[in-house]
Amino acid sequence: MRNRVVLAIAKLVRVSVVLAMVPVVLVTGAAVAGASTADGVAASNMQFPIGPVGIAAVVVGLGGLVTGLVRHHRRVAAAAAAPVQPAVTEPEPADRAAA
Fold first, then answer.
1. Does the pTM exceed 0.90?
2. What is the pLDDT of residues 2-38, one digit of tens each?
3. 3-class DSSP state of 4
4. What Å distances lie between residue 83 and 5, 10, 77, 79, CA to CA?
5. Which of 9, 39, 50, 62 fits 54 for a cystine, CB–CB 3.0-4.6 Å?
6. How far is it, in rounded angstroms, from Cα 22 to Cα 28?
7. Where are the domains of the chain?
């Protein structure tokens, strides 16, 4: 049997790396597009409107999203794995049942 914790951590790391790459690709793409012009006209027209603070906010937001999804997944898995216990009812006393 495989270790579930190791598999869950590996999956979390993979998802985190992929989600962390999104802002990096956006910034790199904007930098490459800005640097690819010879006369600088297109570079002044193409601006990346988010800025470093916005990128940091996106990264923090994605981290929060991943954390929330992992917590939800763990909660659902724990609820599914928990054994269902039958409802226990107390028997009525004899004097109440006769009335």
1. no
2. 778 888 888 888 888 888 887 777 777 666 665 555 5
3. helix
4. 20, 27, 12, 8
5. 50
6. 10
7. 20-57
